[in-house]
Amino acid sequence: MIEIISASRCISCNQCVSVCPTNVFDKVEDGIPVISRKDDCQTCFMCELYCPVDALYVAPDAEGPTQISEAQLELAGQLGGYREKVGWGPGRTPVSQHEYMYQLAVKTSF
Amino acid sequence: MTVAEQARLDLEADVLVIGGGPAGTWAAITAASSGAKVVLVDKGFCGTSGATAPSGTGVWYIKPEEELRRQAKESRFTLGGFLADNRWMDRVLNRTYENMNKLGDWGFPFPLDDGGNPYRRGLQGPEYMKLMRKLVQRAGVRILDHSPALELLADDHGVGGAAGIRTQTGQEWSVRAGAVIIATGGCAFLSKALGCNVLTGDGYLFAAEAGASLSGMEFSNAYAIAPTFSSVTKTAYYKWASFYYEDGSVVEGAGSQRGRSIIARNLLAGRQVYASLDQAPEDIRPLLRIGQTNFFLPFDRMGIDPFKDKFPVTLRLEGTVRGTGGIHITDESCATAVPGLYAAGDAATRQLICGGFTGGGSHNAAWAMSSGSFAGEGAAKHAQSLGAKSGTRVLKGLSSSVIAGKQGSQTAAKSAEFVRGVQAEVMPYDRNLFRTEQGLQGSIERLDGIWSEIRNGSAGRTVEAVKAREAAAMTATARWMYNTALQRTETRGMHKREDFPQLDGSQHYRLLSGGLDRIWVRAEKVEKEAALH
Questions:
Q1: CATH number, domain at A69?
Q2: Residue numbers in B near A62 (CB within 8 A)
Q3: Number of domains in chain A
Q4: Owning domain of residue A97
Q5: pLDDT at B468 over 50
Q6: Looking at the partner chain, which of A23, A45, A85 has a beta carbon nearest the beta carbon of B168?
Q7: How far apart are CA B313 and CA B277, in angstroms?
Q8: pLDDT for residue B4
């Protein structure tokens, strides 16, 4: 479930408020968005992908909240990790055109 | 909130598309390219909503060579219980081939094969749906995000629009349209299967309220393998899994294909099953990591090495999202029996291309983009045939329960209670995966009880109505599923009857269903000339 909006990174662009398919976030006047309906989070990780400054963290546990701090995540280098793997962001190449995609298909039935 | 924000939003269009996943977006761009004025409404956000966006999927993309096509059609025909239709398979294979090539032309970043040509047998969801949103906007379609439909609007001549609410502002919306395409996806009953919590069967309910039928609702018991803690459902990768008990001994016969039942029976008996992808050869492990980046995300974050470690697994309900039941379509334009109403993607039945079993994403992806574009063409044509008359129609809302005022008896808490009641009938493996006459009858009785409470209740025409209608849609969906499953006294496709474990040749038909307070089910013949063999 969505756990963290990093106050030090967030630029209040409200992309997450727009893109969340289950409308978990709320905009805040003169502030950063808040997680208002965490129970509706379906752990799809889409908000993380669309965050331009890697300020969000969705914990892998879909069934309940996880105790984790921003400092721990920074340490583990996990903020923005998914976006990097998908190849979104300036100077990155989308993973969808990675040569392994084709090689995997050749070696398996995918 | 300003006065302008509070005012209603009333729009007119030729075609209204409800749902902004693959089927809805293909429907919208296709209708717009025929010259229709199109509005697309999405319950969430067109581009991230639905089962496709967060995931990667194969696509049933087969070169137009006779032998390759023959094999492709043959591959799941038996698994699907001989209910697919040869002509529809041909149409969908043709249209998917065309559409995937278009996606390449429009800039989808496909990988290259050894000869340097784009390899087009798969799509990465985030990339695909980001592109589809851009194409929809470029086509001049107006998108309303966070704008679930609550009901269709109709008159004696058929469907003429829909009305709903914008969840981020509370503003009511309505769109009058010559034709409406339902592309709301299937129903996974809020199981948190990846991306599926917006898929609550809303479109089935809308269609039934308008008088349309459903087809194949017994094929609605898809379950995906997932780590117990995780939303990531990617059963295909478990073909490299070994399954273990807690003491490390092997679960004999368990597997991702036919061995899913064995996992279910163990879980039912209270024995936790663990998986490890330890059968994946070393050389393909890095490729698998790239092939489905999201599959590894939860493991990496939990510090689990899925190729070495054993992790607990469960079977998460995917319902009709990976089932094949849905709205019955009556012609090649994906029309329903109700004038002006069309269905596409998982909202429509997929029996036509894969019978009673999908076995994975590639057929679903092909169906979404094909049926979406068929429906887009059909709906645009229908709307254009109405001409100027459509503007003067007197339309009324079709919701089967009352949606009015600022507050109703069905509060958010009440809706949540109904949903838990439905989930208790459709999630347990011994009710839905393994079906029996007695079990189905018990469930139907309890579901009928929930339905009559909903029918006698009311919801305010506010954001609370969204959850109220979702609860109604899930209740109705479960009732069509189980009434149909009760009628099919055999095992075929994914539908398993414990009391009738064999396929019965005399039941080689599709089952239509419908109705609200009283559910009806009847057989529809599979045309002989449409069969593969």
A1: 3.30.70.20
A2: 192, 229-231
A3: 1
A4: 2-107
A5: yes
A6: A23
A7: 12
A8: 47
